[in-house]
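User: Predict the complex with NAP.
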Amino acid sequence: MNASATSASSPSTPADASQDADAPDLSSLRVAVIGAGNMGGPVATCMIRAGVPGEQVLIVNSTPESSQRAADDLGARAADSREEALAGADVIVLGVKPYQIIDLLGEVGDAVGQDAVVLSLAAGVTLEAMENALPNGTAVVRAMPNTPIGIGEGVVALMSGSSVSAEQETLVRALFAEAGAVEEITEAQVHAVIGAAGSAPAFAYYAMEAMIEEAVRQGLKRPVATRLVAQTLRGAATMVLETGEHPAVLRSNVSSPGGTTVQGIAALDREGVRTGLAAAMEAAARSSKELSGE
Ligand SMILES: NC(=O)c1ccc[n+]([C@@H]2O[C@H](COP(=O)([O-])OP(=O)(O)OC[C@H]3O[C@@H](n4cnc5c(N)ncnc54)[C@H](OP(=O)(O)O)[C@@H]3O)[C@@H](O)[C@H]2O)c1
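Assistant: Here is the predicted structure with NAP placed in the model:
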């Protein structure tokens, strides 16, 4: 591997990475992205933002035209073939659909360099299954990202296979330094992460949509309603992250006795919104377990 790395650490933010003198040098790293779609694309963007030169990020999609389109969009390079992308790749990102992963690994396994890290984004495909499909000792990491990583406001949960070194773990964290937040988890926790982060942007969009439409019904223009709701939710999330306070404390701070907010909260409780949110997360986690065959 071209990048040198030394230390693994706790959850990081972009600020951590930029201040870390031991951060790996990503400028000579070569990355192959097999499947730069809705998720592989933002992952490539993160890596380029983290410091991998775009011309060293080689994209392979299902057709040369699609590879070129994605590479142009991402500021990366389209590979002429899978072989070209894999030759000398330090990191191989698998952004294809879960059902394609094992067959793909069987096809490309021999072309994976000895020190390369295979980074799978696929839901439901275990580290063990991928390790079994690759030559012995191949370093495999699972990443469970969400789409806001493309704008530096996402979450990536990482799981390392049995052959991943501390240096490789540090490298992968550095590649996601511009993603938003990075968390290391066990594979058993991945289903909970899908409910809390992987599928959760869609839950947030659902809630925003409901709030915007009600604001419109009450007379606000849609663009104004959209800005008010989106900025308010961003502000609320930032308050939680920056104050470290439990959301219940922040909520109580803005709930005057007999005031407007407590009336709204009582309505949320009457309508079962808390139970509904928990049910949505539980359903996503259950579906993830089913995908894994658990
Ligand atoms: N979307 C999410 O929010 C999300 C979140 C977490 C994890 N994931 C995981 O990310 C992976 C991709 O999901 P996605 O939503 O990004 O799907 P997607 O948008 O359909 O992207 C799949 C990509 O794979 C490419 N592809 C298909 N067959 C290929 C082949 N034989 N060789 C090379 N490339 C090929 C496609 O290229 P063409 O466009 O040319 O067909 C496309 O770029 C899945 O494993 C999923 O579990 C997704």
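The pocket of NAP is lined by residues 34-40, 60-63, 66, 95-98, 100, 121-123, 144-147, 198 (CB under 6 Å).
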